[in-house]
Amino acid sequence: MKIGIQGTLGSYHHQAADLFFNSEEFILYEYESFKKVAKSVSKSECDFGLMAIENTIAGSILPNYSLVTKYNLQIVGEIYLPIQHQLMALPGTDFDKIEEIRSHPMAILQCDQFLEKYNHFTIRETSDTALTAKKIKSELSRNIAAIASQKAADLYGLEILKRNIQTFHKNFTRFFVLAKETEPTNDFDKASITFATPHKSGSLANVLNEFVYLGINMEKIQSIPIIEKPWQYNFHVDISFETIQQYEELKKRILIKTDNLKILGEYKKNNPYLLKELEYIDLKSNF
User: Fold this and answer.
1) Burial class (CB in 10 A: 0-12, 13-18, 19+), 278
2) Which CATH superfamily is domain 86-168 in?
3) For the CA atoms of the chain, what is the radius of gyration?
4) Tens of pLDDT along 237-246?
5) From edge to edge, which strands make up the β-sheet containing 259-267?
6) CA nearest 250: which of 201, 202, 197, 191?
7) Among 3.40.50.720, 3.30.70.260, 3.20.20.190, 2.60.40.10, what is the CATH number of 190-267?
8) Would the CATH topology of 2-83+171-183 be identical to that of 86-168?
9) Which of 13, 110, 177, 284 is 20 to 30 A from 61 (CA-CA)?
């Protein structure tokens, strides 16, 4: 099985793949952009792709919603990964001798409290957390530290100087598991749909009232700008439900009230607070 991810071995996408596919054997393919991940799945170069879609601190990654529709991909699963940022450097490095910290802008944003406390560091943005760790090891960069995962530190032989430096410890990233196509199944309790509504007062409210009427939980609604149609939007909606019958009835009801209704995926819900991994995660920081 071939899995495409954005980033390098040791990245959070790598961790998400391990968590979702568990004991299944797979080969990981590294891509430098989310677009290339989506394209690889659409061309059947990879069986599945993992793509970060939102974070509890930084919010939604809007361009990735558009990639799902642009490449006609199916969402076949989701995974919520607890994000724990570690500050790492070459073994034997003294924290007080660190002059520069490097990492992806998102990781830097999520560690703002730590970086404000130690505000004498030069901060340099990079394209990938794990790649930053890998380069520090390969280039034997002294007095430089990376913000990355424990997995990256283990893979590249770096020493953790400060643990769990993220500002908020309930920091999760949600990932979509994407495929080119999927087999029909009734074993799902969540779906992602997208639609537009007529550009007039009350049209969206009329659609959302159907969710209320049927008792369907709308877990997320995200507006996505429609290219070449200024101030018009598609709505990406994640819903969960008790029965397939509820879901089928919803589709019938909103079909006549929406434009371009499309089912992006039907899959099993993953609850971040039920992850077994959280039972032994130490969320204490040491900064």
Assistant:
1) middle
2) Periplasmic binding protein-like II (3.40.190.10)
3) 21
4) 999 999 999 9
5) 217-225, 233-240, 190-196, 259-267
6) 191
7) 3.30.70.260
8) yes
9) 284
